[in-house]
């Protein structure tokens, strides 16, 4: 642990905290920017990067990571809702912020007042946004018709979740034509399965989405509408599908140091070597109690762990209320003094029990790493996520508000 980290630790208000390495974050950003701007493409301008900082910056602290990424050179940011966007603006971030999950009626004026960029995923939203744009432009003293508010169109190309269908481009164009205060600044889609590279139905989905997307763009252009910035690629597409990079890419997981779980697994080492990343967050908790129990004693709610030998059981000051996934009870382990100590019993809201019988010298106050790095030892969140059948982002986003974040460079 560096002396800077040690001094930051003194600021921790609880014996549980998340360390966020902003240098690692900036390094990941630079690695991605370099990766999507290969010299052989000879682009006149760098391909843009929209850093995804929704979900409180995948648990790392949305405003803080956005601030650091703006300094590193991010062109755009992606949040899910107006409130997340406002938090990013209030941290002083000036670059455009795209509100990916759009707005609920009533939210649109506030979204525009904070200079956030709206996403339209249903044609009917255009009218609402146009009215809000008229109000906001008038408030800002713009002469009638002199300025327009930019928005992005989200297209549904096969995920069947959010977005306007390619077959509705004519309807979109007609509605847009009626909006005097709006202009289309970008068009995008989201991939359902870009990490699947196998020759299966799912593995072919990304290519199909891409084809539908570009057909719809052609239709838009034929209707006289310029799409503006075109963007499609999430982390997996960035790492594996150069043909999807378009004008801008939207990294989430890889910014925070984690590659998605590529399928087939044999491809993982090769892909991960081409785009090496650094883990940004380490979640840690101290041992706040430690006791010896005899063979046959039960630990925690419902005694789901019964000691098979005389054991030393330590209590960590963090539970599922802090972001330790409850399904890790009796399954996971944490790093203590460089040794993996198994989690025993059911994880409580505020505490987790671990078996430190095989951790020489373990004592009250010791720091356990739930995931992240501890000196030369690493406990990657993606390995833990896979062990309980979830994705890394699920674990990272789960780090709750009450866990202090310590930022260091
Ligand atoms: C629209 C959009 N783009 C990009 C991302 C980033 O995804 P990933 O974390 O896989 O890079 C997300 C995340 O879900 C998203 O919703």
List keywords for this structure.
binds pyridoxal-5'-phosphate, alpha/beta, 6-stranded antiparallel beta barrel, 2 domains, 8-stranded parallel sheet, single chain, 13 helices, Lyase, Ornithine Decarboxylase, Chain A, domain 1, TIM Barrel, 409 residues
Task: Produce a short descriptive summary.
The protein has 409 residues and is α/β, with parallel strands linked by helices.
Please, could you describe this protein's structure?
With 409 residues, this protein is of the alpha/beta class. It folds into two domains: 239 residues, Alpha-Beta Barrel (TIM Barrel); 128 residues, Lyase, Ornithine Decarboxylase, Chain A, domain 1, CATH 2.40.37. Helices cover 29% and strands 23% of the residues. The strands form three sheets. The protein has an eight-stranded parallel β-sheet. The chain has a six-stranded antiparallel barrel with strand order 10-13-16-15-14-17. Strands 11-12 form a two-stranded antiparallel sheet. Helix 2 packs across helix 4 and helix 4 packs across helix 5. It starts with a helix and ends with a strand. The mean pLDDT is 95.
How are the secondary structure elements laid out?
Elements: H1 3-9, E1 16-21, H2 22-35, E2 48-52, H3 54-58, H4 62-72, E3 76-79, H5 82-90, E4 97-99, H6 108-113, E5 117-120, H7 125-139, E6 149-155, H8 169-177, E7 182-189, H9 205-222, E8 229-231, H10 235-240, E9 248-249, H11 268-274, E10 281-293, E11 298-299, E12 305-306, E13 311-316, E14 333-336, E15 339-344, E16 352-355, E17 367-374, E18 377-379, H12 381-387, H13 392-397, E19 405-408
Parallel strand pairs: 1-19, 2-3, 2-9, 3-4, 4-5, 5-6, 6-7, 7-8
Antiparallel strand pairs: 1-10, 10-13, 10-17, 11-12, 13-16, 14-15, 14-17, 15-16, 17-18
Helix pairs in contact: 2-4, 4-5
Bound molecules: pyridoxal-5'-phosphate.
Pyridoxal-5'-phosphate binds next to loops.
